[in-house]
Amino acid sequence: MIKVISFDLDGTLADENFDKLIWNEEIPKLFAKKYQIPVEEAKEKVFSEYSKEEKHHRWTDIVFWFEKFKLDGYDKLLHDMKHEIRMFPDSLPLLKELKNKYKLVIITSSTRKFLELKIKVDGIENFFSKIFSTPDDFKKRTKDPEVYSEVLRSLKLKPEELIHIGDSYEADYLSPRKVGITAFFLDRSKERKGEEIVHSLSEFKEKIKCLN
Question: Whole-number mean pLDDT of the chain?
Answer without folding.
Answer: 95
